[in-house]
Design goal:
Oligomer: single chain
Radius of gyration: 24 Å
Keywords: Glycosyltransferase, Membrane, Transferase, Transmembrane, Transmembrane helix
CATH class of the largest domain: Alpha Beta
Protein name: Glycosyltransferase
Structural class: alpha/beta
CATH superfamily of the largest domain: Spore Coat Polysaccharide Biosynthesis Protein SpsA, Chain A
Helix content: 40-55%
Strand content: 5-15%
EC number: 2.4.-.-
GO molecular function, one term: glycosyltransferase activity
Distance between the termini: 24 Å
Shape: elongated
Number of helices: 10
Number of domains: 2
Enzyme class: transferase
């Protein structure tokens, strides 16, 4: 007896970015086909050298090759090329449970959200390497301080999106920082979002993580700084202004004290440096105020583009 499609009337696309996932991709495709029988399974191969694309095609997936290296480039291509009402994104390494995909979609529909993130239960205890676990904690705290408490696991690669989200998301990053950019996009436009906690599996024998603790960690840090500058310039430049202003006051304090006591300025170069630092602090403040107005205009434009997409029909 054929399995009924619980989301009949909605087009669902499972989009899987892949790079050298030959040991797992066939099982991942089969599992998602079983969990979502009415969905189209897309595998976006990112220059794999181990036959991932051929294996995925034989498993029944629609395979697209993206030549620009990096997960961000793949996600940008996925959202541009695939047209669906609902998108489910997962990694091709088998660490995410495909059987939970209907739950992701049902949460998306029931809560009328634009993105649902599957937070990874136990990821801090088992993130492949201790450096990954520590970085995960640090970046999630940093994100909360910079952009708000919408998400508790900004690096989860298992997510469901509406067409509204996919077609309004600019996707400027190129690598593993793409999940951070997705989260900021949702937070900035104040989209309705949700999280559900799921188990996070181990990679099977022969499958290896593509994430570099230090290289990708640095890129993620730079992406957070760039997004803070673009979305909250008053806070970004205000922080720089505060640092330069504090340095200026520290240098100027003993000079001012000496001047008040003796009427002399014995360390003229230090006084000039202190004055220069204070002028730079004022410049940063001015930049922050001006760019804050520009950023508000950009948010309005993004919001209009987002609202131009039809909302998901409630089932």
């Amino acid at each position: 007896m054929p399995q009924l499609d619980p989301f009949e009337g909605l087009t669902v696309a499972v989009v899987i970015p892949c790079y050298n996932e030959a040991p797992t991709i066939a099982a991942v495709v089969a599992d998602f086909r079983a969990a979502l029988p009415g969905a189209t399974i897309w595998v976006f191969d990112n220059n794999s050298k181990d036959g991932t694309a051929d294996i995925a095609a034989r498993a029944g997936a629609r395979v697209v090759r993206e030549r620009r290296q990096g997960k961000g480039n793949v996600v940008r291509r996925m959202f541009a090329d695939v047209d669906a009402d609902i998108y489910v994104m997962a990694d091709g390494d088998g660490t995410y449970d495909a059987a939970e995909a209907p739950r992701l979609i049902r949460t998306l529909i029931d809560e009328q959200a634009d993105m649902v993130v599957a937070t990874r239960r136990g990821v801090h205890e088992d993130a492949g390497r201790s450096g990954h676990a520590f970085g995960n904690r640090v970046f999630n705290v940093l994100y909360a301080r910079a952009f708000g408490n919408d998400f508790s696991d900004i690096f989860s690669g298992y997510r469901a999106f509406t067409r509204r989200f996919a077609k309004s998301f600019p996707a400027t990053s190129t690598g593993f920082e793409i999940e951070t950019e997705m989260s900021v996009h949702a937070s900035q436009l104040k989209m309705p979002v949700a999280e559900i906690e799921l188990d996070y599996g181990r990679r099977p024998e022969g499958s290896h993580s593509k994430l570099s603790t230090f290289k990708d960690g640095f890129r993620i840090l730079m992406m957070i700084a760039m997004l803070l500058k673009e979305t909250r310039p008053a806070a970004f430049f205000g922080l720089l202004s505060g640092l330069f202003g504090l340095a200026s006051l520290i240098l100027a304090a003993p000079i001012v004290g000496t001047f008040l006591d003796t009427g002399l300025v014995p360390r003229l170069p230090t006084a000039v440096l202190a004055m220069g630092l204070m002028l730079v602090a004022f410049l940063f403040t001015a930049c922050g105020l001006i760019l804050d107005s520009v950023a508000r205009g950009r948010v309005e434009q993004k919001r209009i583009l987002y609202l131009a997409q039809a909302p998901l029909a409630v089932q």
